[in-house]
From TrEMBL:
Name assigned to this protein: Aldo/keto reductase
GO (cellular component) term, any one: cytosol
Gene source species: Kribbella capetownensis
Molecular function terms, GO-annotated: oxidoreductase activity
Presence of keyword Oxidoreductase: yes
Keywords annotated in UniProt: Oxidoreductase
Cross-referenced InterPro entries: AKR_Detox_Biosynth, NAD(P)_OxRdtase_dom_sf, NADP_OxRdtase_dom
Location of the NADP-dependent oxidoreductase domain: 10-240
Length: 254
């Protein structure tokens, strides 16, 4: 998240929590170089006392306006966790991801071993892996239990289908990030949305949620209106017409 207006950003997150957001997703890498803890600080403040879980990430930070590093060495992960613990006032971190397993030069085993030790110490409650393949997950689970996976998986792209299948087999929660990427070319869903008087995006999020029992979506937003609309996807009615429209729009891309 880019620093904008702290009061407005906090109000937006709180509006989402009031409407039923269960998990907030943040990371060091989303903040600007001069305010690297902005997203974590906002999430910690908004979630405090609500029971909402914050998922945050380590091993990937912004180094310039458009540059980031990727380091899942044991020392870096421990240092990132310790920094996050200070932001969260020493409370245990409920969900902590290795952010860019795909870009780091270290093997996944190194970051996974570091997080497993931190979980054993009670500093991290759940271990997540982000931007991973099935092979990464197999190697990581040989070290310790993986509690959550977060990968790019959009409604119209279904980029991580194999990883979702792996999560289903092991009943591991899968979080689909950028769920609305490249979502505009969906004529059947757009027509159905107009007929139902809802947004096309709401139907796309609903369709993605329906696609797997272990899948949740991480929907990004800069406005309270889109936060609330995306949350409404969970209660949007599902029926065969919606399934058919979604499959027809998916086939356009195939
Ligand atoms: N693990 C990783 O490496 C990784 C990478 C990228 C993202 N993520 C996570 O995933 C989150 C979402 O990703 P993203 O922001 O790239 O993609 P996204 O959720 O697919 O798209 C966000 C955009 O969609 C719009 N939008 C959301 N809900 C909408 C709705 N109901 N109706 C109309 N427009 C809607 C938002 O509009 P407004 O701006 O107008 O609100 C925003 O411009 C990020 O915030 C981050 O937490 C993780």
């Amino acid at each position: 998240m880019t620093p904008r207006d702290r009061v407005a950003d906090l109000a937006m997150i709180r509006a989402g929590i009031a409407a039923g957001t269960a998990i907030l997703d943040t990371a060091r890498a989303y903040a600007q170089v001069d305010a690297p803890l902005y997203g974590e600080e906002l999430a910690a403040e908004a979630a405090r006392g609500t029971g909402v879980i914050v998922g945050t990430k380590g091993g990937h930070s912004r180094t310039g306006a458009n540059t980031w590093d990727a380091d899942i060495s044991a020392g870096r992960i421990r240092s990132d966790v310790e920094t996050s613990l200070r932001v969260f006032a020493g409370e245990r971190l409920e969900l902590y991801y290795l952010h860019r397993v795909d870009l780091a030069e270290q093997p996944v085993e190194e970051g996974m071993s570091a997080l497993a030790a931190l979980r054993d110490e009670g500093k991290v409650a759940r271990i997540g892996l982000s931007n991973v393949t099935v092979a990464d997950l197999e190697r990581a689970t040989a070290i310790a239990r993986v509690d959550a996976v977060q990968n790019l998986h959009s409604a119209m792209g279904r980029e991580s289908a194999e990883v979702v299948a792996w999560c289903e087999a092991g009943e591991v929660p899968f979080f689909a990030y950028s769920p609305l990427r490249s979502s505009s070319n969906a004529p059947r869903l757009a027509a159905m949305a107009a007929a139902r008087g809802v947004s096309r995006q709401r139907l796309q999020l609903r369709a993605l949620l329906e696609s797997s029992p272990v899948l949740s979506v991480i929907s990004g937003a800069t406005r309270p209106e889109t936060v609330l609309d995306s949350l409404a996807a969970e209660s949007e009615p599902w029926d065969e017409d919606l399934q058919t429209a979604y499959e027809e729009d998916l086939s356009i891309k195939a």
